[in-house]
Write a structure and sequence with these properties.
The complex is a heterodimer of chains A (240) and B (220).
Chain A: E1 2-11, E2 14-24, E3 29-34, H1 40-47, E4 55-60, E5 63-64, H2 72-76, E6 79-82, H3 94-104, H4 110-123, H5 139-151, E7 157-161, H6 169-184, E8 188-192, H7 196-202, E9 205-210, E10 213-218, H8 220-225, H9 230-239
Parallel strand pairs in A: 3-8, 3-9, 6-7, 7-8
Antiparallel strand pairs in A: 1-2, 1-4, 4-5, 9-10
Chain B: H1 13-57, H2 59-68, H3 71-81, H4 91-117, H5 120-128, H6 133-163, H7 175-186, H8 189-219
Helix pairs in contact in B: 1-4, 1-7, 1-8, 2-4, 3-4, 4-6, 5-6, 6-8, 7-8
């Protein structure tokens, strides 16, 4: 379970997150929507400790992410993350991309790591591309590679930071399909997304962020059907 | 009639061997200096990248001095003044020390450029997989940044190899010094300098070719 208590985040004098309270249960799929600059992505960075926080805390399975004694590298193994930019390691083949972290972080043998990698690449539909370098893959394939790379660490949670925003429109579908598959398999997911269809169909809950505040959270039917906050209504009217 | 003594004799095949040996010494002093200098330079480059203002106040000015002062001045100064502080180094060791520092000062900025060439988002992705700072540096930044600045590094290495000719002023018999000795004896500067140039070319060319083939391989 991910528990977020009164989380505040500043970039210099810019107050990016203004007291977020949020719990995400195991097995839940939460979509986070909102305009650019509303703090959605920053929330994900704070959850896996890529950004320090100034007030409040994030607790993952009982461990305080930002506490001094926390082994953040160990904790991050529980929190797979997929970014807007897929960031495939260009010097490694698809298989090596996925096998690297299990090998050096988890200390798996080379053969074991490669087996895990092959399995995860098949899982996301890249079973035919094991020995291909990222430069020969499409954006959608590279993003699926990034998903496989995160899954290879066997995380309990997956954080998606606008995973389809940088993709050409015709490539968005394959990535969403992969995310949908993970949701159906019961993976706990927090998806920052601009894909309203995905948020509506796949999520258990949808949270709407506005200027660093979580304005509204609830089941998709409520957020998309009868939004309470004025900002949510305005945002949804604009994206439709 | 008095027998004449000849101080000069023409170029003989054994002189080619002499030049060959000198070329090996050029290679040896270059390989040593470039290897150690590169390792040091990468460390300095990392300090420049991570150290921010602390590095700007300490390491950066020192490296600037070694980058800016002509190598020949550094060599002569070091060779003649090191004994004052109790360092009695022979010409070879003095040459290695100065060429190493010189290489390091050039490589430092290349290395910093290499680290900067790796997108911050790439490093975040690596860290998000649970890699430590050092694992990210070793397995992501080094290979990706290293490839980005490899051509620049090859340029530095070839430059240092040619600059090693300046160690001749300390009396170390590398390729250029050997040529001077032969020119004095044979009075055939054109032939001998051409041969020396050919030796330098023979040392550099395989490196350029090998570097080019590596780059082609990485580009795939």
């Amino acid at each position: 379970m991910i528990e977020i208590h009164d989380l505040h985040k500043y970039f210099g004098s810019l107050h990016v997150l203004k007291g977020i309270n949020l719990n995400v249960e195991k097995g839940e799929v939460l979509s986070v929507i909102g305009a650019s600059g509303s703090g959605k992505s920053t929330l994900l960075y704070c959850i896996n400790g890529l950004e320090p926080v100034q007030q409040g805390k994030v607790v993952v399975d009982g461990t305080d992410v930002h506490a001094k004694g926390t082994d953040i590298n160990k904790l991050r193994q529980q929190l797979g993350m997929v970014f807007q930019q897929w960031n495939s390691f260009p010097h490694l083949t698809a298989l090596e991309n996925v096998a690297l972290a299990p090998k050096i972080v988890k200390g798996k043998s080379k053969a074991e790591a490669r087996e895990i990698a092959a399995q995860q690449l098949k899982h996301v539909g890249l079973g035919e591309k094991l020995d291909v370098y990222p430069s020969a893959l499409s954006g959608g394939q590279q993003q699926r590679l990034a998903i496989a790379r995160a899954l290879a660490m066997e995380p309990e949670y997956m954080l998606f930071d606008e995973a389809t925003s940088a993709l050409d429109p015709e490539l968005v579908g394959e990535v969403l399909e992969t995310m949908r598959m993970l949701a159906e398999e019961g993976m706990t997911m927090i998806c920052v997304t601009h894909e309203m269809g995905f948020a509506r169909d796949v999520s258990d809950r949808v949270a709407f962020f506005h200027q660093g505040v979580m304005e509204e959270i609830g089941p998709p039917e409520q957020i998309f059907g009868t939004p309470q906050s004025e900002h949510t209504q305005k945002f949804l009217a604009n994206v439709r | 009639m008095e027998p004449t003594v000849s101080f000069f004799s023409g170029f003989a095949p054994k002189d080619l061997l002499f030049l060959g040996e000198a070329a090996l010494r050029t290679m040896w002093i270059s390989v040593l200096s470039i290897s150690i200098g590169t390792v040091l330079g990468v460390i300095f480059g990392w300090i420049l990248y991570e150290g921010k203002w602390a590095a700007a106040l300490t390491v950066a000015p020192i490296l600037d001095v070694f980058r800016s002062v002509p190598l020949i001045i550094q060599l002569v100064l070091f060779y003649n003044f090191a004994p004052i502080v109790g360092l009695n180094l022979d010409p070879f060791a003095s040459g290695v020390v100065i060429l190493t520092i010189y290489t390091a000062s050039l490589v430092a900025n290349v290395a910093r450029g290499g680290i900067e060439a790796v997108q911050p988002s790439m490093r975040r992705a690596a860290r998000s997989l649970g890699m430590s700072y050092w694992q990210d540096l070793r397995h992501v930044v080094l290979p990706i940044g290293g490839r980005a600045v490899f051509p620049a590094w090859v340029g530095v290495a070839l430059g240092v190899m040619k600059d090693s000719a300046l160690v001749s002023v300390l009396g170390y018999v590398e390729l250029l010094k050997a040529s001077q000795i032969l020119i004095t004896r044979t009075q055939e500067p054109f032939l001998i300098l051409t041969l020396a140039g050919a030796f330098y070319f023979a040392l550099s060319y395989p490196i350029s070719r090998y570097a080019a083939s590596l780059e082609r391989k990485w580009a795939q």
